């Protein structure tokens, strides 16, 4: 488990401790108020002293929750929690000394007010800031969880005001509502938004674990098939090269002696099929290659433009729309990335034989470079979408494709520490999304590796 995960678990424990102690303080206050007529002065004083102690302790746990949550986002020791506690304790003590240290009911009331001004207000502000900062940190993972934690941070800000600045028993002039009720409402909102966030986070985490498990199985299948493919490709490459050379020699001789044109065309057809078999063998070798090349800084927009230039002859009846944002460089192999783009673009164009629209967009997003390619072609059926990255799987007619294009692309993007995703609706088109870390993020990943 990562250090940030440990700190997050600790922060939730501190929040639970704050809630328990603060709840105990509230129930004790309520019980004392209800039973006040039947209790002696000593019993009331003891209950008030215990209540004040629980309040101060709960606020200390609240401060620790905020500080710990902030450190989940930023590991740098900007401040020391012990020093913060000590400073606030000194301020609280000076406040009490200023009004005298006579141990009586008035002293307990001042201790309550001082604790709210110091520990309560500071704890509420720190917790508010920590939740809002953490919500921004996890926004790339889950927008819904981030939004609820942000709302919880705002609710904590309200709680810091109601519990830290305004003393108990106060009624706001413009809003004739007891301050205790406003504190309770803020606490309810805090509990609601955090519980909602944790529930959504748990569901999304399970989905991501299931997806990662499927990708792991896919990677193992690709690895095993890659080893087999490498052996097959090496075995058939040499005979194919010899056969192609022999066909070319025979064609030249027949052409020189004025042989029948039909015979030469048949030999050309044989040569074409040999070349196609050779291309398949090369794709098998590419599919099996797992060694990471020496990558160079490059702009993905340049790779997109080069790929479109190579496929320009296929774009005559296609409406092409490009939305290429200004991008930072990525670390990659330009030839391999162009191969990925050509594979995806070729599939998109083949899905629109009668013409259609092709959308290509690129943008930076949270340290990643995203390329989105959308066509308005025939689409892919739901049962086939989970298999599109499998080797030799194709939805094209027999003889029209090898079923290796997307498998090779999947492997190449994996070598670039990225990911490739596909979504499609039959009859409406297909969208392929490629995400590759920007140069800075890639260098951090390789340094950690």
Strand line-up of the largest beta sheet: 2-4-5-7-6
Helix content: 55-70%
* Rounded Rg: 34 Å
Mean pLDDT: 75
Return the structural class: alpha+beta
User: What is the 3D form?
Assistant: rod-shaped
The tally of structural domains comes to 2
Residue runs with pLDDT of under 50 for 5 or more positions: 1-7
Tell me about the largest β-sheet.
Answer: 5 strands, mixed
The counted number of beta strands is 7
Distinct helical segment count:
12
Distance between the termini: 17 Å
* Fraction of residues in β-strands: 5-15%
- What is the H/E order? HHHHHHHEHEEHEEHHEEH
What's this entry about, in short?
The protein has helices at residues 3-34, 41-73, 81-98, 105-137, 143-165, 179-256, 261-288, 300-310, 334-350, 382-385, 405-415, 439-448, and strands at residues 296-298, 318-324, 330-332, 356-365, 368-375, 419-425, 429-437. It folds into two domains: 3-168, no CATH class; 292-449, Histidine kinase-like ATPase, C-terminal domain (Heat Shock Protein 90, 2-Layer Sandwich). It is built from twelve helices and seven strands.
Task: Provide tags for this entry.
12 helices, Heat Shock Protein 90, alpha+beta, 449 residues, rod-shaped, two-stranded antiparallel ribbon, 7 strands, five-stranded mixed sheet, 2 domains
């Amino acid at each position: 488990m990562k250090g940030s995960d440990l700190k997050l678990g600790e922060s939730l424990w501190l929040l639970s401790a704050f809630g328990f102690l603060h709840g105990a303080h509230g129930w004790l206050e309520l019980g004392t108020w209800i039973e006040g007529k039947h209790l002696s002065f000593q019993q009331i004083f003891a209950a008030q002293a215990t209540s004040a102690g629980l309040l101060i302790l709960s606020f200390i746990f609240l401060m620790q929750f905020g500080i710990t949550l902030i450190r989940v986002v930023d590991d740098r020791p900007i401040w020391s929690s012990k020093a913060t506690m000590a400073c606030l304790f000194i301020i609280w003590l000076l406040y009490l000394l200023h009004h005298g240290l006579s141990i009586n009911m008035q002293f307990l009331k001042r201790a309550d007010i001082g604790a709210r001004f110091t520990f309560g207000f500071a704890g509420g502000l720190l917790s508010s800031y920590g939740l809002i900062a953490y919500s921004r940190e996890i926004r790339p993972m889950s927008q819904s969880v981030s939004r609820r934690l942000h709302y919880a941070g705002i609710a904590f800000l309200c709680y810091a005001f109601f519990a830290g600045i305004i003393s108990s028993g106060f009624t706001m002039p413009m809003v004739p509502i007891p301050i205790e009720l406003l504190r309770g409402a803020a606490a309810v909102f805090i509990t609601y938004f955090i519980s909602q966030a944790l529930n959504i986070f748990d569901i999304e985490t399970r989905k991501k674990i299931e997806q990662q498990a499927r990708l792991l199985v896919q990677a193992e299948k690709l690895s095993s098939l890659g080893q087999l493919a490498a052996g097959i490709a090496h075995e058939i490459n040499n005979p194919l090269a010899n056969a192609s050379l022999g066909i070319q020699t025979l064609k030249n001789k027949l052409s020189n002696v004025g042989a029948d044109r039909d015979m030469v065309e048949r030999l050309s057809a044989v040569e074409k099929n040999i070349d196609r078999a050779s291309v398949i063998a090369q794709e098998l070798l590419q599919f099996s290659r797992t060694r990471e090349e020496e990558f160079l800084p490059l702009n993905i927009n340049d790779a997109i433009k080069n790929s479109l230039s190579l496929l320009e002859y296929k774009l005559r009846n296609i409406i092409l729309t490009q939305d290429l944002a200004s991008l930072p460089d990525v670390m990659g192999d330009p030839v391999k990335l162009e191969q990925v783009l050509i594979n995806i673009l070729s599939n998109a164009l083949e899905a629109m034989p009668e013409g259609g629209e092709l959308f290509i967009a690129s943008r930076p997003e949270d340290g990643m470079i995203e390329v989105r390619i959308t066509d308005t072609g025939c689409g892919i059926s739901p049962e086939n979408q989970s298999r599109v990255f499998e080797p030799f799987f194709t939805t094209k007619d027999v003889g029209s494709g090898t079923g290796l294009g997307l498998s090779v692309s999947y492997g190449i993007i994996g070598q670039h520490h990225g990911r490739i995703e596909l979504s499609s609706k039959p009859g409406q088109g297909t969208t392929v999304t490629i995400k590759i870390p920007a140069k800075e993020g890639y260098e951090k990943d390789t340094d950690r590796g």
